[in-house]
Amino acid sequence: MVINLFFLQSNSTELNNYKIHLELCFPSNHALLTINIIIDKKFIQVKQCTIVKNSKEEVNFISDFIKGFNNIDISNISDKDTLKQIVQEYAKLSDSTWFKYSHLVNIIRWSKDWWNEDCQMKLTAYRPSKRVERWKDFKKIVKTTKQIFFNEKI
Predict the structure, then answer these.
(1) Which of 3, 89, 121, 124 has the greatest number of beta carbons closer than 10 A?
(2) Same domain, 105 and 122
């Protein structure tokens, strides 16, 4: 592949480390250009705690959080230290309730926001048997679930 021209960011030390190789011009009037682009190693999270939307875990999470929220005494906030303590109690409540009802999932390129427990149950039922009827049940629940999900988005 031949690139006749490339653009660089004017004040970028990372992208402006190019070299023009005039000695490699050969018979054409084009010079070879090279650039080194540094790619940092960054941590890419592949697991995440989540609660499936509209699941019983979500209902229980919200219910427990509201109960705990209402049980925190906010009647006597007289100074900054008391306020900080109350905020920390809310943070602890949020964390503990979240980790009680959430579960760890792998984030993969096929992860879908619309996927729910019904889809998982139908797929789990299909896999051991490989029966056509169960595959049709799975495809039907996927179609319905997608339709509901995207209608809510729209």
Answers:
(1) 89
(2) no
Q: What pLDDT is attached to residue 135?
A: 93
Name the more confident of 133 and 53: 133
Q: Which domain holds residue 58?
A: 1-110
- Residue 92: alpha-carbon gap to chain centroid: 23
Please give the structure tokens belonging to residue 108. Answer: 């993969």
Q: Residue 103 is encoded by which pair of tokens?
A: 């579960």
Token reading at 94: 């949020």
Residue 20 confidence (pLDDT) above 90: no
Domain identity same for 149 and 91: no
List of residues 6+ apart from 128 with CB closer than 8 A: none
d(CA 69, CA 29): 73
pTM score of the predicted model: 0.47
